[in-house]
Structure prediction request, 186 residues.
Amino acid sequence: MSLSEIKKSAEDRMKKSIEALVTNLAKIRTGRATPGILDHVSVEYYGSEVPVSQVANITVADARTLSLQVWEKQMAPVVDKAIRESDLGLNPILLGETIRVPMPPLTEERRRDLTRIVRAEGEDAKVAVRNLRRDANDSSKRLLKDKEISEDEDRRFQEEIQRLTDKFVAEIDRLIAEKEDEVMTV
Prediction:
């Protein structure tokens, strides 16, 4: 494996770490209604577990309310039950084929807890990026040991990987700061 392939692989995997962080942050509820909150809620549909978004149209009715329009009438109570039993702490209101999901306001204490969760998610993402840096540097060291690259190439490569790591850590910090602001905004 060449240095450019190692760098490309590390960069791709770092991007995936960022994507995973964005997905995890979307699950953290802020008091504002967003359809992404229901992404990990699934329902039984003809014998298989599917996300709610595959059995209903999810829209934002207003800043604090989601509206779900189920496509099959008999699915409405099933979706209602799945949302109630999820770990989101939501209390949906069933109105025929429509389900309204009001977002309860967050207390100050809960906002602080969510901020700690956001920071923990960010730290996990940073650790993942740093582990990828270590893996890339180890691969480079192996190439140096096998005399496939020179010490200068190894040093330059490690500097490139460090710049790449710094770029992704800065992106993680930016995402965390945005989410913290969103959580703490009343």
